[in-house]
């Protein structure tokens, strides 16, 4: 299925900001401005990568970022569409009922990943003898 897509976004390859974030921000800005209406289908990742002359993995990362932020939704076997309820347009009543820590828990997967990475780094940096001493009972047969 062909989806018309008029691209106005430009990618600054000399920027320190990651290309996938530039792309995600550009699409989110188009959604916020109303250029992309709710329910509008985005082109496939392959088509978008070809049009922008980017690696498809970069486009997939940008789409994943938009999905995680709530700007777009994925419909199985149909594609990616602009969400009906946009994240920045939540009503005040909805946002006031959320905990002040909500932004932290919103990205709990990223926090969990960060904890796993830090734990792995700690374990790699600590010698195995030190770990055995900390986690063992000191008795060779493990009692």
What does it look like?
- The structure is a single chain.
- By secondary structure, the chain is mostly helical.
- The protein folds into two domains: 1-89, Winged helix-like DNA-binding domain superfamily/Winged helix DNA-binding domain (Arc Repressor Mutant, subunit A), CATH 1.10.10; 91-143, no CATH class.
- 51% of the residues lie in helices and 6% in strands.
- It has a two-stranded antiparallel ribbon with strand order 1-2.
- Helix 1 crosses helix 3 and helix 2 crosses helix 3.
Walk me through the topology.
Layout: H1 19-33, H2 45-52, H3 56-69, E1 72-75, E2 79-82, H4 92-96, H5 102-106, H6 108-125, H7 128-135
Antiparallel strand pairs: 1-2
Helix pairs in contact: 1-3, 2-3
Give me the Rg, rounded: 22 Å
| Tertiary shape | elongated
Strand content: 5-15%
Looking at CATH, which topology of the largest domain would you report?
Arc Repressor Mutant, subunit A
Q: Ranges with pLDDT <50 over ≥5 residues?
A: 90-102
The CATH homologous superfamily of the largest domain: Winged helix-like DNA-binding domain superfamily/Winged helix DNA-binding domain
Cα-to-Cα separation, first versus last residue = 66 Å
Q: Classify the secondary structure makeup into a structural class.
A: mainly alpha
The tally of strands reads: 2
| Average pLDDT figure | 75
Order of helix and strand elements from N to C terminus: HHHEEHHHH
* CATH top level class name of the largest domain: Mainly Alpha
Helix content: 40-55%
Q: Return the domain count.
A: 2
Largest sheet, if any? 2 strands, antiparallel
What's the total helix number? 7
- CATH A-level architecture of the largest domain: Orthogonal Bundle
Question: Strand order, biggest sheet?
Answer: 1-2
